[in-house]
Amino acid sequence: MASPTNPPADKSPDPTIYCLINYEDTYVQPLLLTALSTHLPAHTYKLITTLSDLPTPSSPLLQFLQYESLSWDHLLAHPTTSLANAYIIRKALIRKHYLSTTVANWCVKYPESVLRRHVMPSVEFEVDYVEFLDDALVEAWELRESWGRNEVGGGEREREWWILKPGMSERGQGVRLFSSEEELVRIFEGWEPDSDEEDEEDARSDDDTNDKDYKSLSDGIITSQLRHFIAQPYIHPPLLLYPSTSPQQDLRKFHIRTYILASGALKIHIYRPMLALFAASPYTPPSTTTPPDLSAHLTNTCLQNSTTRAGSVSLFWDLPSTLPVQPPYTPSITANASWKDDIFSQIRSITSETFTAAARGMGTHFQPLPNAFEVFGLDFMVGVEADGSLRAWLLEVNAFPDFGQTGEGLRGVVGGLMGSVVGVAVGGFFGVGGEGGGDMVEVLDLDLGRR
């Protein structure tokens, strides 16, 4: 009679999943705990407060923490029993200048890629201080050619606008519009610290918190974040709609927030309940005011106060099927009542190709692990093409998205997302519970050869 084989060293005889759950967010934490109790049988898991509560190092462990709090050593040492809610390396997606490179490299290799038609090309540059801006733009041919066309162009209506994005800023900080070199210089001059502030900091040099690299600027940006920038052609005209609380003549710009679950190495699911986030003010073309009114152009609700944020977030699938009449400068829209399905189809293709490009083309900067998963927030803009068709444009990829901006009224959207994440990623890894991912749509299944 053959003797029984010993289990792999990393396998634990204890089937209990020990869950270390501390998202450090009062909006998300209770939703996570509810998702666990709903989608995992009660006898299969136990909550713990520290890794020292594990019976053995190889006991099944789920870490659902902020990125900085995760124990990467434990995750890497126990690939079959330890699961975490983030990948270690994913700069190819979440840093704007890295994402720009990811897309550009992929489109060179695959000229027919869907990303060529759904991600605006970027001009990348690095600058620390405004006096070095001219040197930083020496090879920014696209910008200089655009500025030249604006100087001899046919008026404000044909003027080409660009959007400036700091490569590592978050929550819409530092995003600006410009159409000339002079306007770009003024933006950077506005971020320069006053000499009096520098002298005052030097006088208090014993205080580490006043280190120049960590000094907040007037709009909340940290100086060290202002080194890497991208500039992209501004998407105009965008599709304009009415927010739920807006009068019928108050057309506004919006973007679509799509939550993505990346699990293992590598499956990608889209959470079908998407959000529409509206700008604080009615839309006007950038040339209408000098400088452009950012409240009409930036749709990040983090930039809005409690008054303007009210009603700024809606469910994408609740948006009207019949589109309102657009302003005169917008081509006549040819989309029919199924426009939301068409946009969702585009989002599925863009998402799949973006993660493929990062995984296959930027492996140094995106390294999915078999025993990890992560929720990303992808932002899309809907533009109106010259022929009247609607096109989804990928704006950015966010790690650890700010779920609280969804608001109390749509809390169920985030709760459903957490339930689907637990069902698909957690239940799937540990082999417990049902799938629980009815609202998850799989768009990619790559085998990266990592076990």
TrEMBL record:
Keywords, comma-separated and alphabetical: Ligase
Protein name: Tubulin-tyrosine ligase
Biased composition (Acidic residues): 191-210
Family annotation (PANTHER family): TUBULIN--TYROSINE LIGASE PBY1-RELATED
Residue span of region Disordered: 189-215
Protein origin, superkingdom: Eukaryota
GO MF annotation list: ligase activity
One of the record's GO cellular component terms: P-body
Lineage: Eukaryota, Fungi, Dikarya, Ascomycota, Pezizomycotina
